[in-house]
Amino acid sequence: MRKNQRWTADRIPDQAERVCVVTGANSGLGLATTRALARKGGHVILAVRDEEKGHRAAAEITAEQPGAALEVRRLDLADLDSVRAFADQLHADHPRLDVLVNNAGLMAPPRSLSAQGHESQFACNHLGHFALTGLLLDLLTDGDNPRVVTVSSTNHRQGHLHFDDLAGERTYSPMGFYNQSKFANAVFGLELHRRLTAAGSPVRSVLAHPGYTATNLQTSAPVALVKVLFGRILAPLAQRPEQGALPQLYAATAPDARGGEFIGPDGFAELRGGPTRVQPSTAAADPRTGHRLWELSEQLTDVRFRLPAAL
Predict the structure, then answer these.
(1) What string of pLDDT tens digits covers the 311 residues of the chain?
(2) Is 212 among the residues known to form the active site?
(3) What b/e sequence results for 193-218 when a residue is b if at least 16 CB atoms lie within 10 Å of its CB, and e otherwise?
(4) Pick the catalytic residue: 172, 178, 212, 250?
């Protein structure tokens, strides 16, 4: 990935006969990712909270690409019952899964709790994806060159885990807990890589972040200050979703993307540009933090990854 030969979506290998799940696929980065995978022949499952919006997104892609292989399925990542129902149905309908793109996210809402009582951003952005990955791991293991792509953010570098106040009962700030969830994404993706490698699994865990990209994650944020800052003041500096999705597309499809790598933009401060290998924060790469978050996530989701006991 040299800067004078930037990787573009045109270089995505043929995805024919590959089955992909993209969470949050009806808009923004998820829609751009779905469109690019479908264009290369992938069978893409749009995992969306709002099925009506999902069907509209699928129709939009099909109008551009007649014959695109798309499915729309409901998935509310903030509700672990919905995650289990989605995984059960996928097992019933598909013998394998080749790519899982953990893309969906919630950004900077006022404090609220999920159906299971977890802080909403931590529930949606981390716990839901942790559970989904664990419940689909057997399908991924049977996949062809299988990958899990977990989408984090540059904001993970400002985040840390409030282990003593994960639900924000004592102190809550919308952006602070968003940063926590993106930090958790980075910690999870790296810890997943360690465990898959130790188990000799064929599944690759790759991290990605989009830099600063204009999506409705910012413009629909319920906190007014966040909406004004990201949706208006900084909007002219943002890249389009088609560009912002390139790191996660590279992570999902490039033959030389390796497990444990973090892919982000190659421009100034990783805000924009073509995909390149970047570094997670030192704190996110700490195996002790990874182990602690993993054990806590198992407890909170009641999901155990089926990896060899020799791990």
Answers:
(1) 554 478 999 999 999 999 999 999 999 999 999 999 999 999 999 999 999 999 999 999 999 999 999 999 999 999 999 999 999 999 999 999 999 999 999 999 999 999 999 999 999 999 999 999 999 999 999 999 999 999 999 999 999 999 999 999 999 999 999 999 999 999 999 999 999 999 999 999 999 999 999 877 655 556 555 544 445 556 667 999 999 999 999 999 999 999 999 999 999 999 999 999 999 999 999 999 999 999 999 999 999 999 865 44
(2) no
(3) bbbbeebebebbbbbbbbbbbbbebb
(4) 178
